[in-house]
Design goal:
The complex is a heterodimer of chains A (179) and B (731). By secondary structure, chain A is of the alpha+beta class. Chain A is 20% helix and 25% strand. Chain B has 23 helices and 25 strands. Classes of the chains: A alpha+beta (179), B alpha/beta (731).
Chain lengths: 179, 731
């Protein structure tokens, strides 16, 4: 069984937010909400500066606090790809997972359940990349099986420097940022 | 650019709590599915090319259960290569935008008051035709002018020309790429057009001077820019602001605004003085090189340092980087380059710098554009024009090869060389597009007829006598886009979904108008399907297949010397004109010269403008998807400058220019990413049209502050960076 992850090249990303829009239309994300977003981090002082632009989303952690805290089991680790998913009709909208997630990746859908990035599993099952990956004009994102050493994501992580978000939270996130 | 940060995200989540609590609907989910229901339903796909901007990428619309679901890139299309930019992806947000004009309107109140009554199409078109006939009878049809932007204007232009309306204006020339195209025309004998033939994907050294790719989402070029980054090309970015592109660069040169010319001449100076230029190319293809070399002899890096603020050593180092990489070194010619009123010469200077790098027709440089032929429709011949055009009398701007918009506006104000009494404005928000809105309103007040054809209201709409609601691009046919690039191609525009209201496609309006004006024989086809099929049949193109695939590719011709392409220059000398006799003869500098920009008055700052990746001009601020990503612009202020002025990050402030014009309030972005003497705003915001409900008074308009503009004496381009502003704090 694959273990899906995402590798995002911050050197190529221009922060255009195409990934945000593509996710919204692909997944019918309600107006005013988003499952992925852009963070721009500036360091230094004029004129000695660096910039890191990141497309962020649910990290589909190996150690997901949103799952362990869920009182109903709606938040769970899906067999397929070991991704973190929410079963909407089991969710009571208690927001424990919103509080537990250190990445602010979740919101309560107007229909009353916790919602977030699904890694577009419905697309992945059809052999496609997630919408954000396939739309990106800079080709800065790769998606695939982290346990397959021949996958693009594994090859990128083997050959490039990278970091994850809040590694100190102990969540073992599976979205990696190449630098 | 507003970031959808975690904080905002949490705020959104927090706002949801209320909604969730109030919302009584119990979620019903049929399958043991993911968070939201995965998309389901019957899906149909139709290819068509995009017009969220002017880049015209090929896309594929997905219709699910009869509704527009999403718009994706067409993998067969050479512009999108299967990936659209955020605006293209957000096309459904324009289709569904509640602020769209949905019915034909006739003005009931004073001009500018935005008071209208809804009328039928018959009433609206009769009204337009009658007024046009009256103007033609009194002054001649030349006294009705067309303003245009985008593909949809094509048949308005056609029908109006058939009626004898020879005057037109497209802001894309004098307010955008015109100065560059004239600079290249004077140097190489050809303008560059769109898309520019830049081989960014293969370049080893890319120079962006005033070009902010990545924020400026010219899709194909952004895709190639990312490739250049991945290829580890040496990237040199010249910008007073630490742009996204600058953050990817090996060298960021935070140039003093208005001094580009000094830097470009100094680069040329280094290449010549150190013998680093392409001597073979210059010897074979150059004209007047010795005179050019003599003219730039004193433009040393040390001289340029004092003007630009860029250290001489950096100027030398970057010039040498270009020389090492040449001919696979490319100085991007830029696009929207109307800045200081001497921009055609600046464009020419970048053309000469490229010539020193010998990159014309070379891999990694400027390639030779390839095209394809699609036969035209057999229209009857237009009547002969009996008057000259009104926009450029006596060739006041001798090198303008397209109509000069501000010249047309001036003719409307003065009535000279003859009166202009009617304007038909297609998708051009002239109040924002042309400099100094006051003059635009003055011109409008001289008119007997102002027709605005557009999808959305805008500032110009408020002054219209008649407003004709256009379909957005996914709802209509248009003519083919026949493109020039690495390989010629043609793309189809076809309706994928019905318009939400009474909107009609522009070709239909033009045809109806033609019938009313007595020139119906110029629109002899029943509908666009018939027209497009006829063009295909004449060209040997399978129309049914074209409709299905969206794109037809032309022949694969060589586009570089490496591939066997020949190069020739359509200049008076037949060579690349380092020294231009035609400029000298017309009384201009035959070799570009630097003029120092005006200094800012005490307490004032230079205001420069640019683009955001999620908006196009002033056209997309109400798009349901894009407005969430950026609902207002910010004024970028250097953090120290902000501290000195007592401004805090995130507070609202107004900007006042030298003429006392005060902007709408705009949020301060206090940042290290800009020079202390410069302010920056994305343009297109600060709408004052109440009809744009969700964009009304959101952010500030850079155009509104552009009252002191200079006009390029070569070609009539108008500057937009000529203004200084100071802060007006909110009470």
């Amino acid at each position: 069984m694959p273990r899906f992850g995402m590798v995002i090249d911050t050197l190529k990303c221009v922060g255009c937010m195409d990934c945000v829009v593509a996710c919204q239309t692909e997944n019918d994300v309600p107006q005013g909400y988003c499952r992925d977003w852009i963070v721009t981090e500036t360091r230094g002082a004029f004129p000695n500066l660096t910039l890191e632009i990141r497309s962020e989303r649910c990290n589909h952690c190996d150690n997901p606090p949103c799952v362990t805290c869920c009182p109903t089991g709606a938040s769970h680790v899906e067999d397929f790809g070991r991704t973190v998913q929410v079963t909407a009709n089991q969710c009571i909208g208690c927001k424990a997972c919103l509080a537990a997630c250190p990445y602010g990746a979740r919101f309560v859908h107007p229909d009353g359940y916790a919602d977030k990035c699904t890694f577009c599993l419905h697309r992945v099952k059809e052999g496609k990349d997630p919408a954000c990956v396939s739309v990106c004009p800079t080709h800065c994102m790769a998606f695939g099986d982290l346990d397959d050493p021949k996958s693009e994501v594994s090859r990128l992580l083997a050959s490039r420097k990278y970091h994850t978000l809040l590694p100190e939270a102990g969540t073992k996130p599976r979205v990696f940022y190449l630098t | 650019m507003e970031q959808l940060s975690r904080r905002r995200f949490l705020k959104i989540s927090a706002a949801t709590v209320g909604a969730g609590a109030v919302g009584s609907q119990v979620p019903v989910v049929s399958s043991l599915a993911m968070g939201s229901k995965p998309p389901a339903g019957k899906v149909e796909t139709i290819p068509t090319y995009c017009e969220m901007c002017f880049w015209k990428c090929g896309g594929i619309a997905h219709i699910r259960d009869g509704k527009l679901w999403k718009f994706e890139g067409n993998p067969l299309d050479p512009m999108s290569k299967g990936r659209l930019c955020p605006r293209g992806t957000a096309a459904p947000g324009t289709h569904n935008d509640p602020d769209r004009i949905s019915k034909p309107l006739i003005r009931t109140g004073e001009r500018g008051k935005e008071e209208f009554k809804a009328v039928t199409w018959g009433e609206a078109l009769d009204y337009v035709a009658e007024r046009m006939k009256k103007i033609a009878a009194e002054h001649g049809p030349e006294s009705i002018a067309l303003w245009k932007h985008g593909t949809g204007s094509r048949f308005f232009e056609h029908v109006m020309r058939a009626y004898g309306c020879i005057n037109k204006g497209a802001p894309s020339f004098a307010q955008c790429r015109g100065p560059r195209d004239i600079g290249y025309l004077l140097t190489y004998g050809t303008g560059l057009g769109s898309p520019e033939p830049t081989d960014i994907a293969n370049t080893k050294c890319l120079v962006l001077i005033g070009t902010h790719l990545g924020e400026n989402m010219h899709n194909t070029q952004v895709q190639e820019f990312a490739q250049a980054v991945a290829n580890k090309a040496t990237i040199i970015v010249v910008d007073p602001r630490y742009s996204v592109a600058a953050s990817k660069a090996k060298y960021w040169l935070p140039v003093k605004p208005g001094t580009d010319m000094a830097l470009i001449l100094a680069w040329c100076n280094v290449l010549v003085a150190e013998g680093l230029y392409d001597k073979e190319f210059v010897a074979k293809h150059g004209h007047g090189f010795d005179k050019f070399a003599a003219a730039i002899k004193d433009s040393t890096p040390e001289w340029a340092e004092a003007e630009t603020g860029i250290p001489a050593a950096t100027i030398r180092a970057t010039a040498r980087e270009m020389a090492i990489a040449r001919p696979a070194a490319l100085v991007h010619p830029g696009r929207r380059v109307n800045w200081y009123g001497d921009d055609a010469q600046r464009g020419r200077a970048t053309a000469l710098l490229n010539a020193l790098l010998g990159n014309w027709g070379r891999k990694g440089g400027l390639f030779i554009q390839a095209g394809m032929k699609v036969a035209g429709y057999p229209f009857p011949k237009f009547p002969e024009a009996t008057k000259p055009k009104a926009d450029n009398p006596d060739h006041k701007w001798p090198f303008a090869d397209e109509e000069v918009t501000t010249g047309l506006r001036e003719a409307t104000i003065t009535g000279k060389p003859y009166p202009i009494k009617g304007w038909v404005v297609y998708a051009s928000n002239l109040n924002h597009t042309l400099p100094n809105e006051k003059e635009t309103i003055e011109a409008i007040n001289k008119l007997d007829l102002l027709v605005v054809v557009d999808t959305h209201p805008a500032e110009i709409t408020g002054y219209a006598d008649v407003v004709l609601p256009d379909t957005m691009f996914l709802e209509r046919h248009d003519d083919f886009y026949v493109g020039w690039g690495r390989q010629g191609w043609a793309a189809i525009r076809q309706p994928v979904i019905a318009p939400p209201g009474e909107q009609k496609p522009a070709w239909w309006m033009a045809k109806e108008l033609a019938n009313r004006l007595g020139v119906g024989q110029y629109m002899p086809f029943k509908d666009m399907d018939e027209y497009l099929a006829a063009r295909c049949e004449k060209s040997g193109i399978d129309y049914a297949k074209f409709r299905k695939e969206g794109v037809v590719m032309g022949p694969k011709d060589p586009i570089t010397v490496e591939e066997g392409a020949g190069i020739a220059f359509d200049t008076p000398s037949g060579k690349v004109e380092f020294y231009s006799e035609q400029l000298a003869k017309a009384g201009f500098d035959p070799v570009p010269k630097y003029t120092a920009p005006e200094a800012a008055p005490a307490g004032f700052f230079r205001l420069v403008t640019g683009r955001a990746p999620v908006h196009t001009f002033s056209r997309t601020q109400t798009n349901l998807l894009l407005r969430d990503l950026m609902k207002e612009n910010e004024v970028w202020v250097n953090a120290e400058t902000a501290a000195k002025a007592g401004l805090k990050h995130g507070q609202y402030v107004k900007l006042k220019n030298q003429d006392g014009v005060v902007s709408n309030r705009v949020k301060v972005k206090a940042t290290q990413r800009i020079r202390p003497d410069t302010l920056y705003m994305v343009y297109g915001f600060g709408h004052t049209s109440r009809l744009l409900k969700s964009a009304y008074l959101m952010g500030a308009s850079a155009a509104q502050l552009n009252t002191r503009y200079k006009v390029d004496p070569l070609m009539g381009g108008t500057s937009i960076h000529q203004n200084f502003v100071t802060f007006e704090k909110e009470a």
